[in-house]
Amino acid sequence: MSEHASRAAVSTATASPTTLMRVALRLLWRDWRGGELRLLLLAMVMAVTSVSGIALFTDRLERALLQESATMLAADRVLSGRQMPPREWLDEAARQGLATAEVQAFASMVFSDQANLLVAAKAVSEAYPLRGDLRVADQPFGAAYTDNAGPARGEVWVESRVLPGLGLDIGDTLYLGDGEFVVSRVLVQEPDRQQGGMMDNAGPRVLMNLDDVPATNIIQPGSRVTYRYLFAGELVVLDVFADWVREQSDGGFRLRDVRDESQEVSDALARGESFLLLGSLFAVLLAGIAIALTARRYSERHFDYAAILKTLGCTSNQISAIYFGILLSLLLIAVVVGSVLGWLVHEGILLLLQSVIPIALPEASFTPFWLGALTAFICLFAFAMPPLLALKHTSPLRVLRKDLVAAPLSTSLPYIFGIAGALVLILWYSQDVLISVILVGAVAGVALVLSAMSYLLLRTGSAAGMRAGSAWMLAMSAVRRRRRQSVLQVLVFSLTIMSLLTLALLRTDLINDWQAQLPEDTPNHFMMNISDSQVAGMQSFLQDNEVDANPFYPMVAAGLLTVNGAPAPHPWDDDDDETGRSTMTERAGAEQPDDATSDATTETAADGSARPQRVENRQVTWTAQLPPDNDVVAGSWWGDDSRPGRVSVEQDYAERIGVSLGDELVFRVNEQEITAVVDNMRTVRWDNMQPNFFFIFSPGTLDHLGATYLSTLLLEGEDKLLLNDLLRQYPTIVVLEVDALIEQIQSIIAQVSSAIELIAALVLVAGALVLLSCVNATLDERFRENAILRTLGAGRKLIMTSLLIEFAFIGLLAGVIATIGAELSLYYLQSEVFQQTFSLHYWVWIAGPLAGTVIIATLGFTATRKVVNSSPLAVLRQLSA
Amino acid sequence: MTAMIEARHLAKQVATSEGQLVILKDISLSIDAAEAVAIVGVSGSGKSTLLGLMAGLDSASAGDMILDGQNLSTMDEEERAQLRGRSVGFVFQSFQLLPSLTALENVMLPIELKNDRDARRKAATLLQRVGLESRLQHYPNQLSGGEQQRVAIARAFASEAKILFADEPTGNLDAATGAKVIDLLFSLNAEFGTTLVLVTHDDRLAQRCGRLVRLVAGEITEDSVVDGVGDGVGDAAHV
User: Fold this and answer.
1) Contacts of B99 in chain A (CB under 8 A)
2) Chain B nearest-CA residue for A20
3) pLDDT tens digits for B19-72?
4) Chain B residue closest to A36 (CA)?
5) CATH code for the domain of B24
6) Which comes out higher in pLDDT, residue A254 or A606?
7) Cystine design at B63: which of A341, A349, A411, B9 (Cβ 3.0–4.6 Å)?
8) Are the Cβ atoms of B58 and A397 closer than 8 angstroms?
9) Nearest-CA neighbor of A683 among A637, A745, A623, A741?
10) 3-class SS at B228?
11) Domain ranges in chain A?
12) How far is CA A743 from CA A265, A320, A523, A582, in A?
């Protein structure tokens, strides 16, 4: 027969894909019944469940929060200005398909027959609010209900406080300018109450119909009015419209979306999301390790299968096809089961969080399920495929020579695949190349260091013999004899415990930090525009009414002109990401409702030409006492024995404007130039809803420049009525109410904290899976060894004790290493990712090693106990078969 | 009669830490279709290596191995696998059944791999032929050693192989069971007209084959016709 003919003959009658798939399914089914695939499938289901569950939850929550945030604006976008924007802009928005509404806000005195009151009046068009709800009641402090129609013409809705303030009841008449209005409802809540600035916070709210404004004649040329156009609609259309507005605008108007709003809310959300991301990533990576370990064991047990199949005529490719079929079927099952479980998990979280998620969640999108499936796919191909595909290299000769390790698994290939897979996963989740590379590099580095450490620790004494005399010696010799495996076990255990410890500590620190950020007694009112002469009187007023007084900070607007003689740079000029931090203090003190003020001055450049310099006015203060939540990080605080002419600068701000200790700064304050030397730098906790300042001067520097004072108050429920008396006595002061904002942040923190707990629990399950797979990986060898030991006369007790000691020892090592690793990674995460201050967690240094010892000993002992419980003869017979 | 198996100057050596270890040297051997040959020798004489080479489970260091008219030396592992699937059946000392498949499924496997839709019926018939009709749904660990080997024999004949390689088929069985298994093997071999190559160190078993090839330290020292058995191919010849 010619060579060609023989090859042609060979290629006939090979197994079809259907046949191979049938064989694969049969093997899958049998292996499943035999329990071999349970851990592998469980690990894959775990990966899909955690990803789809968390993604479903965050997907819906994020969309809900975005919607809720939109309600803070009562719209998706708001255009505001001190002039009325051109009406064509509203028409253009409507033409593009956006919903529009119009708002005018101004401070005004209102009158009744008995009294008068300064109020924050707001006139709204009929479509208002575009997002969120107006909540009203028929009585002061009565049951609230939703009414989005707004006040009809000739009617006003007022906040509860207005009624006692003016001595009115529902149905009475109120005078505003030349207009006469019937008070028809009590206004309980309006979505965009916290727009900041004086116009909205000058006093209690009076809401009126926009069409009534002309008749009041209250708005005259020169009146201080904030005009707002509200827009809502599809994101794409909004963006197109925003671009159009920017082209038209000469800079006198500002277009904002929710992201420009409350820094405090977005900070809390961003940190929560980082944690959820990190958590689900940990869960997936741990599941990945479990998949790799179980797949490796599965493939080792299938060397014989592959060899036998080859003697029956299966080619290498057909063997690959069979095991590929098995993996693909597993993937399918894992995706279906994992998606269902993921759905249940997310429903469970929602059920748990029902009370803190007061808003109706939008329907889930399909994306989370794709995420889960794709994660499983990547996990499978990166972690499970390499060992299973190595089966095709099994030599058929293995059927004759059992000792032949025919297809030694390439030691580097699975790792390369695993690391590549992990990198893809992290990259995909974080969408950040640098973070991904750093994280994978760090994990690889940690793994390397951990291996070296555990190898060195285990390298005590020789590995000769079994030293079967005592349980202790037997255990130690077992650890050393399987040094490679022991190192791998310590490595996997310590990485797992490390992940769990890191996450647990991070969770505790994060939640503690948040609770510290906004404690129960966080002040919910800012009082400002208080004159020097009013301070003492107000302090005694508060004391008489048993309200805790907080410090009164003098406040004055100061513009930085020069640093060491050179023009001061604009701090946010070079940074597109930073929209300019506008603190509660800035918002409270700013004349403009929107931002820290800026104005232009003219300075002469070196060439003699005059060019305008933009000078940013900041609200500054002076004090001898370092305010709470401020920490001096360079120089030292002046205390009571300060000299005038010193200034303390917030650290980040100092960096941005390139200022260091000893620099001489010139400010313009109320048309006067003030020189001060930088004495120290501070860090400031911006998110604590307290007065915070970029610049604090030493007493005596600005005292003569006519400051007003700023303070905070905590008033809840009916105590708020005190404000009426206070405002009656001090009609010129301004009170800013921030309860809604605080409540919103607290509710977000509560939601995110609960989600964090759940993630931690999921990671715990993934970790347990890894530990179990790792113990199982050495089960066959243990069976053989212990069966031999027992046939040689070793007692059950000796073997059981030695197993316990062996696992306890490995657990202890893993616990110690994990503790070190956890503290190191916490240091990195807290300082670089979560912007927290790191401190050592002393209790972990005891709890970590202890937990490692107890958990690993229990788990290992439970899993391997059957080694002792089955008859040695049965074991030996099974292993030799 | 054409040779079903032909070894030409076959050699096998492996590299060890102490240099090259010669396992087989210059083996030349020809086995005709339907012939039954016993390869005997002490442990380490190279019998199993020779079987591996003849069955295409391993490749030779030198020489040619012709199986069913095809030169294994010029084929890669994929082609050898296909040839095995088409022409070769095996019976091993340690049975080599897939533990997670039932007796019936083990026998079905080679038939299915040939895309034969009638696998279940054929496998059941073969199991009936080896006396295991009541054990079809049993897993290997639910069967005795003798029963497992009978399943292995049924599987070997299931692929309608032209050549059957048996490696110490009674090595794991007691004498009585071993004898029954061997009876079965020989009777099926005669029935299917298969070429049988049987590796054993049991001279009594070897006597049941028509021809005996003895290996000593990797060389053929005897290639003889066994009296009273076989078809009289070649006279007793000492090499």
Assistant:
1) 34, 881
2) B113
3) 888 899 999 999 998 899 999 998 888 888 899 899 888 889 999 999 999 999
4) B100
5) 3.40.50.300
6) A254
7) B9
8) yes
9) A637
10) coil
11) 20-55+268-431, 77-256, 465-524+738-881, 525-734
12) 11, 59, 12, 20
